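Fig. S4 source data, part A: sequence.
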Amino acid sequence: MHFTTRRLFLAFAAGCGVFLGFAVYTFVYARGYSYLTDDPRACANCHVMNDQYAGWVKAPHRSVAVCNDCHTPANLVGKYAVKAKNGFWHSYYFTTQTFHEPIAITNSARAVALDNCRRCHEPVVTAIDGPHNNTKRLDCLRCHQGVGH
């Protein structure tokens, strides 16, 4: 290997090692492993989510659903893809302190939540959608925005 090429390779390898070290440290420090579970307390690791967690504790859905039941797709691959995407962006915005308070649901997260509302409450949704004969799906969160938390 040429001397300059070798130095570039070693610099690249060192940079990758530093990046990986910071990533592992951050994952452990921020309890990132807790997000791989279905434990709702993981969602309250960040103070921004305290109000949502406290609301969920008092809400009727607490006895039948955890955060992942509403905020991730029902299939395993979709669930962890959404968790990875959301985890990355939550970490980014929290680390850079560029999150909006109060937090607001994104359009993609809202779509996931609505799909889950419709799936869990299918008999009621079918009864409501039927008479309206709409091609556009009704937005459950329009009237029931505070139901889950």
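Fig. S4 source data, part B ends here. The domain at 46-143 is CATH 1.10.3820.10 (Multiheme cytochrome fold).
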